[in-house]
Design a protein that fits this description.
Length: 73
Amino acid sequence: MLTCGHYDGSGDFAFRVGLPGKSGVGGGILAVAPGRASIAVWSPGLDETGNSLLGSIALEMLAARTGWSVFGT
C-alpha cells in the first residue's frame, strides 16, 4: 500500500505522510499506522493525481503530530 495505493501520487504521499494507504476516486483514504491504528478520512475534492486533497493534508498533519510515520520523525 505504501508504494502503489495512491495512483500516480503514491511516491509523494509516502514521502509526505509516511503511512501505508489506499485512496479511492470518491475521496476516501484508508491509512494504517502499523501496530497503532487504522485511519479513514474522506473529502470529495481531489488533487491532480485523483486523491483526496484535504484527506491527504489531514493524514500528513496527523502523522507529523503523532510521529506515526513509518520513516520516523
